[in-house]
Design a protein that fits this description.
- By secondary structure, the protein is of the alpha/beta class.
- It folds into two domains: 206 residues, Glycogen Phosphorylase B (Rossmann fold, 3-Layer(aba) Sandwich), CATH 3.40.50.2000; 157 residues, Rossmann fold.
- Helix content is 44%, strand content 16%.
- It has 14 helices and 13 strands.
- The strands form two sheets. A seven-stranded parallel sheet has the order 3-2-1-4-5-6-7, sandwiched between helices. Strands 10-9-8-11-12-13 form a six-stranded parallel sheet, sandwiched between helices.
- Helix 1 crosses helix 14, helix 3 crosses helix 4 and helix 8 crosses helix 12.
- The longest helix is centred in the last third of the chain and has 19 residues.
């Protein structure tokens, strides 16, 4: 087997803004593949010119990961920008000679398919990172119908980050099991070096910080988390809520905070570049998402020794066993969310037990092990293409 040359395609580097977990995962995967001797290039398809992008460019330079921007961001459905990016990616691929194109977002998958046909690249695949891949409504239905027709006919492999996504893909494609059988490869994170268990020292009478991390978008269900907070404050007035991340709903969420009279209890910190350090300042991590793929931010919270309360949705329930390594509540239910948070505040021994169990269970999502799964898949696909050596 010759050196694997892989081109990873992500949406962009505005991580915490337009971009999120899929991009973080792809970067970590690329770093691990390099450690295994692969030649890896990273295409951040859209250049967005944000502070977060600048920060991540600096991080990638330190990791010695080559990054290429294909086009400027002009909105989610700008065909001229997509076309320009496809041509730029093709020209870049001509100079880098990748054997594998691996996309982590929808438009990137189409560009990879087009590039393969233009250049006869041996293998293309995509990873599905979310249970709901298209926007709701008529336009999303049309886009899904197109992808359901194209993907089984043009992709060499399809990976899902959770069992729930695998099952959904099998239901979506009538001929899927014969032409393009989806495989499972969980999202993964870089685990911290220390495996020591962190004590839960605060009680319900002390100042207590609830934290969450993610894009301020409808998917994250933050309106329900804000609505749960007054029910928590009735019993625990020294509680605060901290949001890390930014997004299109920030103004709406800030207005809802003011309407509820929570201005002095809620902080919107925006995008930060030291998420792990900020996690260590939380007493409880809450995920109020309405849908997810396999959220790496919950993994990161567990790895940091935090107890977790999360919504009982596909993907998340593959990580959390209710009452063992976290608490699960129905999505969109502010009262159930408040009850679970109050229970955590009032029972430090349960909080500690759950946090310890989370630090143990999260080890199965080590990015080092996930990278080995992808490496084996790449090698199998190349062998099947007849161009592995």
């Amino acid at each position: 087997m010759t050196e694997l040359r892989i081109l990873q395609i992500i949406k962009g580097l505005d991580i915490g803004g337009v971009n999120g977990g899929a991009e973080r995962f792809s970067i970590d995967l690329s770093e691990q593949l390099k450690n295994h001797g692969c030649k890896v290039d990273l295409c951040a398809f859209y250049k967005m010119n944000t502070p977060a992008e600048t920060d991540w460019l600096g991080r990638l330079k330190q990791k010695d990961l080559d990054v290429f921007f294909a086009t400027d961001w002009a909105g989610p459905n700008d065909l001229r920008s997509i076309s320009a990016g496809a041509n730029s990616l093709r020209d870049y691929a001509i100079t880098r000679h990748p054997m594998i194109l691996h996309s982590h977002f929808q438009q990137g998958a189409y560009v990879a398919i087009w590039t393969k046909r233009k250049m006869n690249i041996p293998v293309i695949l995509r990873t599905a990172h979310n249970i709901n891949e298209w926007e709701p409504g008529f336009s999303g239905t049309i886009k899904q119908a197109i992808s359901d027709f194209v993907y089984p006919r043009c992709l060499d492999a399809e990976v899902a980050v959770s069992s729930a996504i695998v099952d959904k893909l099998k239901r979506r494609y009538p001929t899927h099991s014969k032409k393009l059988r989806p495989m499972l490869a969980y999202n993964g994170i870089k685990l911290p070096p220390s495996t020591s268990l962190l004590p839960a020292t605060k009680t319900g009478e002390s100042e207590f910080t609830i934290g969450t991390v993610g894009r301020l978008a409808e998917q994250k269900g933050y309106i329900h988390l804000l609505s749960a907070l007054p029910l928590v404050l009735e019993r625990h007035p020294e509680t605060g809520l901290l949001f890390l991340g930014d997004g299109e709903l920030r103004s709406e969420l800030e207005a809802h905070t003011r309407m509820l009279g929570l201005g002095n209890k809620v902080v919107f910190a925006g995008q930060v570049n030291n998420v792990h350090e900020r996690l260590l300042g939380f007493d409880l991590f809450v995920s109020s998402s309405l849908w997810e793929g396999l959220p790496t931010v919950i993994m990161e919270a567990m790895a940091a020794g935090l107890p977790v309360v999360a919504t009982d949705i596909p993907g998340t329930r593959e990580m959390i066993n209710d009452g063992v390594n976290g608490r699960l509540v129905p999505p969109g239910d502010s009262h159930a969310l408040a009850d679970a948070i109050n229970e955590m505040i009032e029972t430090p021994h349960i909080r500690q037990k759950i946090a310890n169990a989370g630090r143990v269970s999260v080890k199965q999502f080590s990015i080092e092990e996930i990278a080995k799964t992808y490496l084996k898949l790449y090698e199998t696909l190349l062998a099947g293409s007849g161009k592995s050596s």
